[in-house]
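Issue 218. Parser rejects a valid record. Input:
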Amino acid sequence: MASSHAFASQIDVARRAGVSAETVSRVSHGSSAVSERTKQKVLQAMNELEYRPNGAAQALKRGSFQTLGVALFDLRSTGNLLLLRAISESAALKGYSLTVQIVPHSKKVTLTDIYTHMRPQAVDGMIIILEQTMPDLEEFSPSPVLPVTIVTSLTTPHASTVDSDQEMAGRIATTRLLELGHHSVWFVSGPSDSIASQCREKGWRTTLIAHGIQPPTMLPACHGDWSPNSGYEAGCALARIPDCTAVYTANDAMANGVIAGLKDHGKRVPEDVSVIGEDDSLKDFEPHVRLSTISEDWTQVGKYAVAMTVDAIKNHRMAPRHELLPCQLIDRATTAPAPAES
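Output the parser choked on:
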């Protein structure tokens, strides 16, 4: 058996099998120009020596690593996990593996930083799952040799983008609550630098204004951080506002916290206050989910991200594409018509 401290080479295999290095190369590449008897001798030598073909050398020969780089900020969030799974499955169907890079949250990090860090890796293209605002979004210009697709609702002139339509999500949720007769809707945001939260807030705000309603001033407690605890603080604060009967939160985890805070202060959901979340992430963790929410199709976003990146790899200097995929309301048990005024 080969030493655990060194990798066997083609020459080692050739010596063990009693053939030339060229014959070993032909077997590695599945060539039919090798007799079955010789092929079996080479394969046996490969197994005995635990030989692994040099992937980098093979990539240079075919001009491709068959690998996509994926950069993201957080592996703990449900959305990112679902999206990464969709990207992995879609990439595999196209014959690509993934190299994943975790980017630290920082106000100083830029798209150029992320791209520069990934560029030396053995990847053919790159997908950046963009969660926070970037100062160089407009200026960022990847090389056609290493194309980039950015998962974001924003657009940039030099790279393709794809995402669920986050602004649309805010419009759908707010419109539904107004249709139920609520005179206004309060909003609980995610982190201030979150692009998704900013877009959802814009959808909420513009919908209220379009209906002639001045958006309520956001309380300090309503600036959340995606966690159930921050939602709970918001729910406690909103329970003290007598005319608050409808709440839209920027994710489902905070929505659950909002509901708990409201209930702890004597408010019934949905009889007194209706609540709509965002992302439909609880169905994988909770039985009999009751929360009304806006669902995003992570699978489709992942498929689009991979397809756009692979297209750009195969067709250098393609014009950037921008895709926003629709969201949909899932109306469950936390919404109801506005309570009658006493």
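Fixed in the parser; the record now loads. The two ends are 84 Å apart (CA to CA).
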